[in-house]
Amino acid sequence: MKSQKITLREPHPRRSYEDACGAAHALDLVGERWALLVMRELLLGPKRFSDLRADLPGISANVLTQRLEGLADSGILVRRKLPPPASVQVYELTPWGYESEPIFQALGRWAARSPEHDPSLPLSAVSLLISFRTMLDPQRARGLRARIGFRIGDESYLARVVDGRIDVARDELEDADLVFAASAPAIAAAVYGGRPLDALEAEGALTVKGNRSLAKRFVKLFPLPPKIAQST
User: Fold this and answer.
1) CA neighbours closer than 13 Å in the CB half-sphere of residue 167
2) What is the rounded distance in angstroms from the CA atom of residue 120 to the CA atom of residue 193?
3) How far apart are CA 161 and CA 173, in angstroms?
4) Closest CA to 39 of 88, 89, 104
């Protein structure tokens, strides 16, 4: 694979709103373009630089380098080396960085009510799985206990649904009751776009292995909130 040249720029003082409001300081920390999305991609665990580039296709190598450095300087993430046999550099949120997930959930629920929100746009695996933790309807999931696997590209994730709650992590799928294998947008088409599983399978966009009744119930657990009324 051809290596990419990354030009490091001289550090510059971080801009500040000079405002004591906590929300203003939060924007001082993560208000730069792409910063929040870099954090989002790390919410389910560490990633290599190349993985972050792949999951954020619109970001340049230079900008990603700058955002990683800025977030590290703020104490939001760290760079570390995985032990052998991997022995690669990864970026990982600090415990304080992981505390940001409710912010993403609140923003996601709020922005999904916008008439301009388009759930059919591209999204990453982490974005999709965090959306499940955000949009799960506890009443629809009431009484359900299941292990749902997702094979998205080279990654595997396991969602555990227990009595109206869902937890998602990178994990092996041997014990899953059901496994979806597809791209993140194809799974989103079934969950948020209302596309029938049979139709997606016929197109070759998705495969379902395991409990099909569970699959049909699972994709109905995440209703989007109602759109705001547009002013006339």
Assistant:
1) 6
2) 7
3) 14
4) 104
Which superfamily, per CATH, for 105-218?
A: SCP2 sterol-binding domain (3.30.1050.10)
All structural domains of the chain with their residue ranges:
22-99, 105-218
pLDDT digits (tens, 9 = 90+) for 108-130: 999 999 999 988 888 999 999 99
Answering whether pTM is above 0.70, one says: yes
**Any idea which fold 22-99 has?**
Arc Repressor Mutant, subunit A (1.10.10)
Name the amino acid, one letter, at 29.
L
CB 128 within 8 Å of CB 184: yes
Helix (H), strand (E), coil (C) string for the chain: CCCCCCCCCCCCCCCCCCCCCHHHHHHHHHCCCCHHHHHHHCCCCCECHHHHHHHCCCCCHHHHHHHHHHHHHCCCEEEEECCCCCCCEEEEECHHHHCCHHHHHHHHHHHCCCCCCCCCCCCCHHHHHHHHHHHCCCCCCCCCEEEEEEEECCEEEEEEEECCEEEEEECCCCCCCEEEEECHHHHHHHHCCCCCHHHHHHCCCEEEEECHHHHHHHCCCCCCCCCCCCCC
The residue to which tokens 């999204």 are assigned: 123
pLDDT tens digits, residue range 125-172? 999 999 999 999 999 999 999 999 999 999 999 999 998 999 999 999
> Based on the number of CB atoms within 10 Å of its own CB, is 29 exposed (0-12), middle (13-18) or buried (19 or more)?
middle
